[in-house]
Amino acid sequence: MLALSRKKNEALIINNNIEITILEIKGEQVKLGISAPKEVPVYRKEVYMQIQEANKEAVNPDGFEALKQLLG
Q: How far, in Å, CA of 32 to CA of 64, rounded?
């Protein structure tokens, strides 16, 4: 993991097309602004983990068996 120090209104550039700017710092909370192309998904980690879990459940073999039984 790369750890960088940034101050308010300073930014990082990732892969020439993603910019992350420090918008505000209040106590232990930091507000970030992210500019990225539309085709680059940006998620909070907890949302990303929920999506990954839902995807795993969708391809669960037990789900296929239940579908087979439902369709006869």
A: 41
Q: Specify the length of the chain in residues.
A: 72
CA angle 65, 70, 72 (to 5 degrees): 95
Q: Is 70 helix (H, G, I), strand (E, B) or coil?
A: helix
Query: Buried (b) or exposed (e) across 55-66, using 16+ Cβ within 10 A?
Result: eeeeeeeeeeee
Secondary structure of residue 22 in the 3-state scheme: strand
What is the reported pTM?
0.72
Phi-psi domain of 16 (left: phi exceeds 0; alpha: psi -120 through 50; beta: other): left
**Per-residue burial over 1-33, b = 16 or more CB atoms within 10 Å of its CB, e = otherwise:** eeeeeeeeeeeeeeeeeeebebeeeeeeeeeee
Give per-residue pLDDT as tens, 53-64.
888 877 766 666
